[in-house]
Automatic annotation (TrEMBL):
Native source organism of the sequence: Cohaesibacter celericrescens
Name of protein: MFS transporter
Keyword Methyltransferase listed: yes
Protein family (similarity comment): Belongs to the class I-like SAM-binding methyltransferase superfamily. RsmB/NOP family.
Residues where S-adenosyl-L-methionine binds: C260, A261, A262, P263, G264, G265, K266, D281, D307, D323
One GO process term, biological-process aspect: RNA methylation
PANTHER family in the cross-refs: NOL1_NOP2_SUN FAMILY PROTEIN _ ANTITERMINATION NUSB DOMAIN-CONTAINING PROTEIN, NOP2 YEAST -RELATED NOL1/NOP2/FMU SUN DOMAIN-CONTAINING
Single GO molecular function: RNA methyltransferase activity
Catalytic residue positions: C376
InterPro entries documented for this protein: MeTrfase_RsmB-F_NOP2_cat, MeTrfase_RsmB-F_NOP2_dom, NusB-like_sf, NusB_RsmB_TIM44, RCMT, SAM-dependent_MTases_sf
Highest taxon, organism lineage: Bacteria
S-adenosyl-L-methionine keyword on record: yes
Pfam family, one: NusB
Keywords: Methyltransferase, RNA-binding, S-adenosyl-L-methionine, Transferase
Amino acid sequence: MTDTHQSSKKSGMAARDGALRLIHAVLSDKYLLDDAYRHEITEGQLRRLNGNDRAFAKRIAITVLQHLGEIDIVLSRFMDRGMPNKSGPLRNILRIGVAELLYLDNPAHAVVDCAVTHYRKWRKYAGFKGLTNAILRRVSKDGAKELASIDPAKANLPDWLYQSWTKTYGLAATNAMMEQFLKPLIPLDLTLKNGDDSAHWAEKLEAEIMPTGNLRMATHDRVDRLAGFDEGAWWVQDAAATLPVKLLGDVTGQDVLDLCAAPGGKTMQLAAKGANVTALDLSTKRLERVQENLDRVGLTATLVTGDVLTHETGKKWPFILLDAPCSATGTIRRHPELIHQRAAQDITHFASLQAKMLNRIANQVAPGGLIVFCTCSLQSEEGPDLISDFLMHNPDFGIEPIEPDEIAGIAPFIQNDGTMRTRPDQWGEKGGMDGFFAMRLRKCE
Ligand SMILES: C[S@@+](CC[C@H](N)C(=O)[O-])C[C@H]1O[C@@H](n2cnc3c(N)ncnc32)[C@H](O)[C@@H]1O
């Protein structure tokens, strides 16, 4: 064997080892994948690897998380006696093997070889080498046939989520959303600080100008290496996430209270429109991110650490934006781990918190003022289901319906009740978008 071959085998193994650690951190320790990855490249195994090998490790982890339900069904079909008890890393080693064989098309000999090599580190479980080898060889031979008989949406979603979405959006939309969740590449959306510059930056970044005015890059280099990053010409923000701020209308020179503001995407949008923004968040640490983001793009806002449920601002506001904490099921396309970390009870918890927040801020709005409420959730409990209760408790408010021609690109997302709903399968051929709910509530004069 040549030196190059040896070192590429070594780095391939280190990448797979990194993937194993990422998957464990997400599935067992409930870390977000991005946080686990950041930890791995600063302090963990991936620190010593080059960019390509790190990317390979992350790709394996993402593929396992996206296809976990399908992978586990395939494995169950080749493991007549099920997963052995007390088998340590076996399950995740096999999951990585199946992901590589069935979705990443990596050569079977390398996949099986690396899978059994894991046990050099996990000596206690070395007895599972033979089983690992046998199962993966069978998957490499017949796995694709098994996979063809599996319904991706049903397999990859927990039953409560599958039932919830098929009931709310129907079977076709649920399947179409899953199709987006399984895409290997997610486009990068950028919001320009100065919207008039879109043609210039679109050309420079080889990006597309979307109907909502933001830029979309189908593929991209590291974000901090892209043109315009250092000069603060734009920030990363999903196209759907840009719409709620626009619902406030013209806020130039107006006082806007931006609640639950970190990491600050919407704060930057408001400040760029010339509003006097007060941005409040529970987390001081997350507000530091808001400040860093504002500094980079050369914008300002007043930052306040506080709890929406108790904080007194001491004045009535003409404009309030509440981007409430939520289950974030609308962002699964970018965070596949959420499928495995969320439970039905979380929805009840977030919906009740959102209702409390909405009721609490109602008396902080000036007569004739506006609240825009939004969540990046696909669950109706965290969106339209909140309306009737709020209006019953706050009869001085009404929904101000969104009009199709008031904001570029918003027409397809307007619902019959005048609220906004985006879904991950919309703009599907261009890479989809986050699922967002937003509504505009006007207080009587
Ligand atoms: C969906 S994120 C907000 C995203 C942000 N608006 C943006 O556009 O970048 C939700 C935020 O709510 C904050 N949060 C959660 N509970 C809160 C509370 N009780 N009071 C204030 N902020 C809260 C979290 O710290 C988190 O930063």
